[in-house]
Design brief:
The chain has 206 residues and is mainly alpha-helical. The chain has 10 helices and 4 strands. Helix 1 packs across helix 3 and helix 6 packs across helix 8.
Length: 206
């Protein structure tokens, strides 16, 4: 009887040890994908990449591995973050300021007018250029719209069915990714544009 219990215990440990090794291997593989991708990747992308390498896994197993990675990074400067386009590895916010000198970002600063324009599009989308002008009370330059299109923060999502058929603009996944958001519903509550000053509006939205 004692030998029977020992055998069962041994088999139980071996089975769970095998599962642990497979889980750890999968987690390490996903970590490598997130590290090497340089962009957010979806659960389906991860599964397809692993399948191409002969590893057949379920989406639920990938999610479990992502949860394991989150635990692994608990006391580090790195985090797993889900954004609109999928999952990615990020430097935690409290450590990002120390990287400024390394990155030496020379991209042009976003103007106040551009901030106002993208904020209105984000909250009121889809909107036309005329809608933006009505809310801002000033004309919207072609350069502002072009700049947002070049950044891939907005896209033409259709045309309003009125004379002239003006283009309708909406935000993109790249915009959400850059703001570390999963969807537009994660945007902060819309302030009272009419009753607040222009500066106060920007401080709350952006």
């Amino acid at each position: 009887m004692l030998n029977s219990y020992k055998t069962k215990a041994k088999n139980y440990l071996l089975n769970h040890l095998g599962e642990y090794k497979l889980s750890k291997s999968l987690t390490n593989s996903i970590e490598a994908l997130l590290f090497g991708a340089g962009r957010p990747i979806t659960l389906s992308e991860i599964r397809n990449i692993l399948s191409n390498n002969g590893n057949i896994v379920e989406l639920s197993d990938i999610k479990k591995s992502l949860n394991m990675l989150e635990g692994r990074y608990t006391d580090t400067s790195i985090e797993v973050q889900e954004v609109a386009s999928g999952y990615r590895l990020n430097i935690k916010q409290e450590h990002s300021s120390s990287l400024g000198n390394i990155w030496n970002d020379k991209s042009p600063r976003i103007s106040k007018a551009l901030m106002e324009t993208i904020s209105i599009i984000a909250y009121k989308q889809p909107v036309t250029r005329g809608d933006i002008e009505d809310i801002r009370g000033v004309s919207v330059s072609t350069r502002s719209i072009r700049s947002l299109l070049e950044r891939n923060w907005i896209k033409v999502s259709g045309a309003r069915d009125v004379p002239g058929r003006p283009a309708l603009y909406s935000t993109t996944k790249d915009f959400l990714d850059d703001l570390n958001l999963k969807s537009v519903s994660d945007l902060p509550e819309l302030p009272d544009i009419i009753n607040n000053s222009e500066d106060d509006f920007l401080s709350k939205v952006v």
